[in-house]
TrEMBL record:
<protein>
    <submittedName>
        <fullName>Sulfate ABC transporter substrate-binding protein</fullName>
    </submittedName>
</protein>
<keyword id="KW-0732">Signal</keyword>
<keyword id="KW-0813">Transport</keyword>
<dbReference type="GO" id="GO:0042597">
    <property type="term" value="C:periplasmic space"/>
</dbReference>
<dbReference type="Pfam" id="PF13531">
    <property type="entry name" value="SBP_bac_11"/>
</dbReference>
<dbReference type="GO" id="GO:1901681">
    <property type="term" value="F:sulfur compound binding"/>
</dbReference>
<keyword id="KW-0764">Sulfate transport</keyword>
<dbReference type="InterPro" id="IPR034408">
    <property type="entry name" value="Sulphate/thiosulphate_BS"/>
</dbReference>
<dbReference type="GO" id="GO:0140104">
    <property type="term" value="F:molecular carrier activity"/>
</dbReference>
<keyword id="KW-0574">Periplasm</keyword>
<comment type="similarity">
    <text>Belongs to the prokaryotic sulfate-binding protein family.</text>
</comment>
<feature type="signal peptide">
    <location>
        <begin position="1"/>
        <end position="25"/>
    </location>
</feature>
<dbReference type="GO" id="GO:1902358">
    <property type="term" value="P:sulfate transmembrane transport"/>
</dbReference>
<dbReference type="InterPro" id="IPR005669">
    <property type="entry name" value="Thiosulph/SO4-bd"/>
</dbReference>
<dbReference type="InterPro" id="IPR000957">
    <property type="entry name" value="Sulphate/thiosulphate-bd_CS"/>
</dbReference>
Length: 284
């Protein structure tokens, strides 16, 4: 009886070891823009759970890399082995094809909405009571107003800010290029600090107390207002604005090398699901 019991024990142990060996562990690296940390911290766990459910208990771990969108794209071109990118401007994904041949030319057609599962626009975050009476773009070129937003050379967030300001000035000036350029010169002159990314700009405004207005995505300024509720920040949405789409792509060359193509495609497709979209609405 003892021999049979011992034999059964060995068989059970062998079976459990076999099942453990059959279960696979997959890891994805998501290269994303600077102010998306909280969003993907909320999105990733539900997908990891769904992946395990759909794949026989296989585990998936999604790791994040965050910085200014353009800086992130450059890091991939320089060797960062990201499996997927979730950026805030098309040009930072396109460069992965143009400069690195890491993705195909038709990458935007592989997922719905030109491979953009969500979007935002630009917003102003002002201090409690809006003491500088800031309501629109024209208020941002006054001599008494100091601006905070990231460097357009490294941040997609800041490029949208620049383009939105240009568009507002162009509309107000009836297409007079000289007047628009004059507006933009003063606009940039009023920037107190150029951080490399949106998160640094938030720290400068909310924690260091610099600037009268922080310019960022509407989704981001709403999140900052909640995060720093005690400071009583207020959100202002300018009348003339810009549509900021957030494109995503799996990095073909990397997922093939990493053996993560199935997981990468499933992850990005899941961002369009009702479950993911519900989570996204909490941040936008």
């Amino acid at each position: 009886m003892a021999v049979k019991s011992l034999k059964k024990g060995y068989l059970a142990l062998a079976a459990s070891m076999l099942l453990a060996a059959q279960a696979q562990a997959t890891e994805l690296l998501n290269s994303s823009y600077d102010v998306s940390r909280e969003l993907f911290a909320a999105l990733n766990p539900p997908f990891e759970q769904q992946w395990a459910k759909d794949n026989g208990g296989d585990t998936l771990t999604i790791k994040q890399s965050h910085a200014g969108s353009s800086k992130q794209a450059l890091a991939i071109l320089q060797g960062l082995k990201a499996d997927v990118v979730t950026y805030n401007q098309v040009t930072d994904v396109q460069i992965l094809h143009d400069k690195g041949n890491l993705i195909p030319a038709d990458w935007q057609s592989r997922l719905p909405n030109n491979s953009s599962p969500f979007y935002s626009t630009m917003g102003f975050l002002v201090r409690k009571g809006n003491p500088k009476n800031i309501h629109d773009w024209n208020d941002l070129v006054r001599s008494d107003v100091k601006l905070i937003f990231p460097n357009p050379k490294t941040s997609g967030n800041a490029r949208y800010t620049y383009l939105a300001a240009w568009g507002a000035a162009d509309k107000a000036d009836g297409g007079d290029k000289a007047k628009t350029e004059q507006f933009m010169t003063q606009f940039l002159k009023n920037v107190e600090v150029f951080d490399t990314g949106g998160r640094g700009a938030t720290t400068t405004f909310a924690e260091r107390g610099l600037g009268d207005v922080l310019i960022s995505f509407e989704s981001e300024v709403n999140n900052i207002r909640k995060q720093y509720e005690a400071q009583g920040f207020e959100v202002v949405i300018p009348k003339t604005n810009i549509l900021a789409e957030f494109p995503v792509a799996w990095v073909d060359k990397n997922v093939k090398a990493n053996g993560t193509e199935k997981a990468a495609k499933a992850y990005l497709n899941w961002l369009y699901s009702p479950q993911a979209q519900t989570i996204i609405t909490d941040y936008y």
